[in-house]
Amino acid sequence: MIPRPALRQSTGEPAELSSGLVIATDELSRDTALLLRAELEAASGWRIDLRDAGASSSHGTIKLRVDGGGPGASLEGYRLQTGPRGVDIVGSGAAGVFYGTRSLLQLLPAAWFRSAPSGAVPSTSVEVAATQIEDQPRFAWRGAHLDVSRHFMPKGFVLRLVDLLALHKMNVLHLHLTDDQGWRFPVDRWPLLTEVGAWRRESSAGHVEEGRFDGVPHGGFYSKADLYEIVAYAARRHVTVMPEIDMPGHMQAAIAAYPELGNTAERLEVRTGWGISEHVLNMDEPTVRFCLDVLEEVLEVFPSTHIHIGGDECPTKEWEASARAMRRVHELGLERARSLQGWFTGRMGEFLADRGRIVVGWDEILDEGAPKDAVIMCWRSQHLGMTAVGAAHDVVMAPQQWLYFDLAYAEDVREPLAIRAATSTERVYRYEPIPEGLAPEDHHRVLGAQCQLWTEYVGDPRHAEYLYFPRACALAEVAWSPRERDWEEFQLRLTAHLSRLDALGVNYRPLEGPNPGQAATWPV
């Protein structure tokens, strides 16, 4: 089972499930019951009834209910028991019941992860080993990031990724929606952001250092209906979709659409090469109003408590060279051009706080003083987590050295083109989110951990799946399971778990290395 439960015992007689199975549910668990019924019916071809809690059947019963848990219990915690009387899943909250069903699925043969009967699912009944599980997550934030700005990813893949995250009890999907190379979020008040900013005329070919381009236009964006659908689909699976609008740097696509947002009179195009653009937003009040307009529409679509505004890699060259920008520095009583970013982040944070939301930013927002309630996403180093906690911030650990999944798995010529090497599945599994030396009374400040998939070198969903899995399986266990971990024992469970990914059709990387269809492919 992945991630490993906090406590599991296997004793007694098995449960037997068969056609005519009943799922008995309370009202808080009904959505999960509907999902589970659809999954089991699809794989087995059986008819499964859904009834109110308390129902039973001679064919066996799966009972789902919420009991609120005890003092200090995580609402994501659950208890699962299987035996001759059927299956009983009790969650501290609705999320706990859902995670209990993800564990139940892993007690079944891998064929039960298929979308239709495959011949490997018995036509009459299936035994579920007698099991008692008590489980809850170690960390509340168990996330995965997807960059859809460098290479646009279709809605269907985003929904599939949600399912895969939920299977592994991960609960945050961080969508990086805008950058220099593309703008994917429609803003009604600023339509050129997608009419112009969502498309670039070509992209880098090979590694960026080669200086080649492919000559192929690329782009796309999500409609608001698409995004509402993604958010609702994820919510049913207890995954929160957190949007990111990167600002005030990484904004060349926006400036290409609306040149008045920039610092010079130069007309720009959406950036075609990778790397960091020196073209950043000016800090005039109309530009700040533009950013607030964008965030207002973001909040309409995304109900997530946390809203990410980027804040990373913002060059100050244009501000330093601009008389207008330096006047702004003096008007605001700031010390230097770099201080404009701290002032700007404060404005965005205040806007979000007034609407009951929490600003999230990459760790650069610490450099000029982050808003007091900001959550810091530490990517440059593990040590910056200590710095953020020392400044009384909550943190999400996302260090590139362990959790950047755009890195290759190994320094091996068979690996597909990547920004650099290497982060193996074992390295991810051995990662510890609590920084060494962090005082125990500050451990609560570490909300959890998150992997990142930047897509400069990831042009399609199959390549993305390869880079996520099985590393995301390892991270899921790091973020959910108790701290004590055994890599050798995990490998045994992971080998079995890969048969589930096979049944789901996931294009994961085999543990021994890429298969012949994956080796040295995807030359973006």
Report on this structure:
This protein is of the alpha/beta class. It folds into 2 domains: 7-135, Chitobiase/beta-hexosaminidase domain 2-like (Chitobiase, domain 2), CATH 3.30.379; 141-504, Glycosidases (TIM Barrel, Alpha-Beta Barrel). It has helices at 30-44, 94-106, 155-167, 192-195, 224-236, 252-257, 285-301, 317-321, 323-331, 339-354, 383-390, 400-403, 425-429, 461-468, 471-480, 487-504, and strands spanning 7-9, 15-18, 22-25, 49-52, 61-66, 78-83, 86-91, 125-128, 131-135, 141-147, 172-176, 178-179, 182-183, 199-200, 204-205, 212-213, 218-219, 240-244, 306-308, 358-362, 375-378, 395-397, 446-453. The strands form 6 sheets. It has an 8-stranded parallel beta sheet. A 7-stranded mixed beta sheet has the order 1-9-6-7-5-3-4, covered by helices on one side. α3 (155-167) runs parallel beside α5 and α7 (285-301) crosses α10. The longest helix has 18 residues, at 487-504.
The rounded distance between the terminal residues' Cα atoms is 35 Å
User: What would the principal axes of the Cα set say about the shape?
Assistant: globular
Major β-sheet profile: 8 strands, parallel
CATH class categorisation of the largest domain: Alpha Beta
Strand content: 15-25%
Summarize the structure.
By secondary structure, this protein is of the alpha/beta class.
Key features of this structure:
8-stranded parallel sheet; Chitobiase, domain 2; TIM Barrel; globular; 23 strands; 524 residues; 7-stranded mixed sheet
